[in-house]
Write a structure and sequence with these properties.
With about 450 residues, the protein is an alpha/beta fold. The chain has 15 helices and 17 strands. The strands form 5 sheets. Strands 1-2-3-4-5-7-12-14 form an 8-stranded parallel barrel, surrounded by 4 helices. It is globular and about 60 Å long. It binds 6-O-phosphono-beta-D-galactopyranose. GO terms for molecular function: beta-glucosidase activity. Keywords: Glycosidase, Hydrolase.
Length: about 450
């Protein structure tokens, strides 16, 4: 073993409810925005495949958790579907929903796998979206009540909670760049949505602490280190502003309890400050996270703005910078994302130096690949050596950050088994375990899954 990780390192993976459960209309589940969007606009979805056709985790969780054991997991993150637990988003709790999540939690614990539970992974209940979703402050209260319900029902056994996964994505997708419902372009709303999400997280943390259940609560952020094209002051400034918009907007309030000055300045100048109520900022200041999950896929490369914006165009963060495709960069061509392994190290060192070395872990990192079936051998095993290499290349940098004092406690891959994606349905496969859609979702452990087991057993590679 060349790269040995600290004792008790968390090895596992992550999934989300909408991407794995299926059974979207069963056992009293209410509709969320994905169920609704698929119903009204199926052509929006890659090859017309929607959230009801996912990996059947709802029925097959026992088999799947057994497989988690077989690929060496000591921890696993999933999300609770708000609309399965509370079909209308507020009000009545669905007993079948409670039963399902109880079963999953107990099964995990029975296999010696620690459940990491996320409360919100892009799946707003439709009844709440109808009143504006995160743009409406009432939804913050509904979310707080939902979070409390989860702590009360499951908190005796769940000791790692997360308030949100990638909270900036619903802002970007739903209100700026048109890839999530309600697919509007409205910067003012985007800011209000983002602000309410931050507030909801602080309120959930407050509710959790009041219950004194003795676990930890955090948030999961997709951090995209912002690299300037050059050391020219204009490029440096552009990268700094992009960082404030896309990373620090959630990172600073979550960890430090305050919003980044650079961002507040711009919002004030441009006239986009959200509506803030008196007690809010104190709640945000006091209720920061215990633990930070870092999702890392790609960096953000930025250069100074080279064109004048059209004054008629709606306001976008890109008024302050341009994106820049570095020549010679390494790409995952299936997803169109740059692969830059050192980014994971830069994030961890930044957390160490500027965020009090907060306890953290890599909560997602992974490689989506199209057409993996062609790598299946006669025994049914998919030979995904590129995935093993991808994980190793990133882990080397995580290891180096640990040597330099980073407080990183684990690594979770995206994802455990092939699942449905918002953007690509089942085109790109990310799993350690394959799901064969032609054979009613038959599971087989990939080569990477077998390797992951040795990684976890040796606590390194
Ligand atoms: C993250 C999300 C996941 C997952 C992953 C892969 O942003 O938290 O839900 O989907 O990205 O991305 P994609 O499925 O779009 O390729």
């Amino acid at each position: 073993v060349t790269y040995r990780f600290p004792e008790g390192f968390w090895w596992g993976s992550a999934t989300s409810a909408t991407q794995t459960e299926g059974a979207t209309h069963r056992d009293g589940k209410g509709k969320n925005i994905w169920d609704h969007w698929y119903e009204v606009e199926p052509s929006r979805f890659f090859q017309g495949v929607g959230p009801q056709d996912t990996s059947q985790f709802y029925e097959r969780y026992k088999e799947d958790i057994q497989l988690m054991k077989e690929v060496g997991h000591n921890s696993f993150r999933f999300s609770i579907s708000w609309s399965r637990l509370i079909p209308d988003g507020r009000g009545e709790v669905n007993p079948k929903g409670v039963e399902f999540y109880n079963n999953v939690i107990d099964e995990l614990l029975g296999q010696g796998i620690e459940p990491f539970v996320n409360l919100f992974h892009f799946d707003m209940p439709m009844e709440l979206q109808k009143i504006g979703g995160w743009a409406n402050r009432e939804v913050v209260d509904a979310y707080e009540a939902y979070a409390k319900t989860c702590f009360e029902r499951f908190g005796d056994r769940v000791k790692k909670w997360f308030t949100h996964n990638e909270p900036i994505v619903p802002v970007e997708g739903g209100y700026l760049y048109d890839f999530h419902y309600p697919n509007e372009v409205d910067f003012e709303k985007a800011i209000q949505v983002g602000y309410h999400t931050v507030l909801s997280s602080a309120k959930a943390i407050r509710a959790y602490k009041q219950l004194n259940q003795g676990g930890k609560i955090g948030i999961i952020l997709n951090l995209t280190p912002s690299y300037p094209r050059s050391n020219h002051p204009a490029d440096l400034k552009a990268a700094k502003i992009a960082d404030a918009f896309f990373n620090r907007s959630f990172l600073d309030p979550s960890v430090k309890g305050e919003f980044p000055e650079e961002l507040v300045q711009i919002l004030k100048e441009e006239g986009f400050m959200p509506i803030i109520e008196e007690e809010d900022l104190e709640i945000i200041r006091q209720h920061t996270v215990d633990l930070l999950g870092v999702n890392y896929y790609q960096p953000r490369r930025v250069k100074a703005k080279e064109t004048l914006p059209n004054p008629d165009a709606p306001f976008m963060p890109e008024r302050y910078f341009d994106h820049y495709a570095m020549p010679g960069r390494k790409m995952n061509v299936h997803r169109g994302w740059e692969i830059y392994e050192k980014g994971i190290y830069d994030i961890l060192i930044n957390l160490k130096e500027h965020y009090g070395n907060i306890e953290c872990f890599i909560s997602e990192n992974g490689m989506g690949v199209e057409g993996e079936e062609k790598f299946r051998d006669e025994n049914g095993v998919i030979h995904d050596d590129y995935r093993i290499e991808f994980i190793q290349d990133h882990l080397k940098w995580v290891h180096r950050a640990i040597q330099e004092g980073s407080n990183v406690k684990g690594y979770h891959l995206w994802t455990f088994m092939d699942n449905w994606s918002w953007a690509n349905a089942y085109k790109n496969r990310y799993g350690l375990v394959s799901v064969n859609l032609d054979k009613n979702g038959e599971r087989t452990i990939k080569k990477s899954g077998k390797w992951y087991k040795t990684l976890s057993e040796n606590n390194g590679f």
